[in-house]
Amino acid sequence: MRGLVVLVTLACFATAQHQALIDYLERRLLAIEDRISLWHEQTTRYASELRELKQQMVSQLENLDKEKEILRTNLDGVGTRVDRVERELDYLETQNGAQPCVDVDDKLIEQQVTLVQEKQKAKYSKLSDCSDMISSVKAMKILKRVGGPKGMWTKDTSRVSAKVYIFNGTDEDTIHEFATVQDFTRSLGMSLSKTLRLPSSWRGTGHVVYNNHAYYINQADDIMVVKYDMKNSSVTDSAVFPVQDHVPVYGLTPETLMDLAVDEEGLWAIYATRQNERHISLAKMDANSLDIEQMWDTNCPRENAEAAFVICGTLYVVYNTKQPGRSRVQCVYDVNGMVTNEEAPLIYFPKRYGAHSSLKYNPQEQLLYAWDDGYQILYKLVMKKKLEI
Ligand SMILES: *[C@@H]1O[C@H](CO)[C@@H](O)[C@H](O)[C@H]1NC(C)=O
Ligand SMILES: *[C@@H]1O[C@H](CO)[C@@H](O)[C@H](O)[C@H]1NC(C)=O
């Protein structure tokens, strides 16, 4: 009897245990089902939310498209202004570059005046430590279009001065002076300029502004170089260029009988005479007295030449090329004999008109100021040492 009780108890115990397991499993299954339905709900909700979001995005994108369109029209409207500001910034940037040549020159002038005077009598290569030559043209900026097809524009090439001078035309007597490049680009035509009236007309585009003076070419029977003080508006000096039988120096720019240039070493005259008719001649001038210091007959032909400039005692002559819209430095003449034509860099200039009517180098900024069909253009130059060729 006692054994049966034990057995029943055991059986009950087993059944109870079994039942508990089933209950447990059922609870778990229910819980899992619950969770599955919850997931299902959530997924559906997510899906619909996603759909809504997508719709919102589509309509927002449409709005964005519309706004973009409006923005583009606005941008087109201010495009010219942005362009101008950019040009000015780019231009100002170029003004802050290092100027090793000029620094050396300044030191020379400060510390070694007597030495320089002695060296002037000696071989020309000893005159200055300036030995830069062009490596390439890094950038070009069209600043403005003002004036006629021919003319010249420049800053004072002897020092960092903000003023800009416009010599419009090839036979005029009125210089337009702008206080800054910004004024020049901002000005409607010449409206923001101050006018300086010269006592006589200039001929061609062969003038320079150097150390607060305008140097210009005036022609009667002889070629006259006139030095005009811009501070007190008076002619300081004038001198007949002591060479006879002049012919226009560049084949393609007949108005320019003689060209003047400034480089790190001072004032130069670029000219041609009937005696050496096929080639360009070069002379170093004393900017104070207008005396000729030395003269060279170069091997650079006049034919097809449109303009020239001097950098560190090297003459670069720019010629018309067979490719339309392009000119090229095709002949160099180094008074120090360090750069030959074979070593001359390949330098191209885009152009719109038949020829550049002037190309003026500014040693303070290492920029070329060009006048091409009434467009005032800046070319930014990259230099290298002559010896590094
Ligand atoms: C520039 O010069 C040209 C020709 O010499 C002349 O026709 C034109 O009126 C001048 N323009 C200005 C703005 O002085
Ligand atoms: C102008 O100034 C220069 C020096 O800067 C002087 O030599 C000249 O006599 C002055 N001319 C006049 C007319 O005042």
From TrEMBL:
<comment type="similarity">
    <text>Belongs to the OLFML3 family.</text>
</comment>
<keyword id="KW-0325">Glycoprotein</keyword>
<keyword id="KW-0217">Developmental protein</keyword>
<dbReference type="Pfam" id="PF02191">
    <property type="entry name" value="OLF"/>
</dbReference>
<feature type="coiled-coil region">
    <location>
        <begin position="47"/>
        <end position="74"/>
    </location>
</feature>
<dbReference type="GO" id="GO:0005615">
    <property type="term" value="C:extracellular space"/>
</dbReference>
<feature type="domain" description="Olfactomedin-like">
    <location>
        <begin position="129"/>
        <end position="385"/>
    </location>
</feature>
<dbReference type="InterPro" id="IPR011043">
    <property type="entry name" value="Gal_Oxase/kelch_b-propeller"/>
</dbReference>
<keyword id="KW-0175">Coiled coil</keyword>
<dbReference type="InterPro" id="IPR050605">
    <property type="entry name" value="Olfactomedin-like_domain"/>
</dbReference>
<feature type="signal peptide">
    <location>
        <begin position="1"/>
        <end position="16"/>
    </location>
</feature>
<dbReference type="InterPro" id="IPR003112">
    <property type="entry name" value="Olfac-like_dom"/>
</dbReference>
<feature type="disulfide bond">
    <location>
        <begin position="130"/>
        <end position="312"/>
    </location>
</feature>
<keyword id="KW-1015">Disulfide bond</keyword>
<dbReference type="GO" id="GO:0007165">
    <property type="term" value="P:signal transduction"/>
</dbReference>
<protein>
    <recommendedName>
        <fullName>Olfactomedin-like domain-containing protein</fullName>
    </recommendedName>
</protein>
<keyword id="KW-0732">Signal</keyword>
<keyword id="KW-0964">Secreted</keyword>
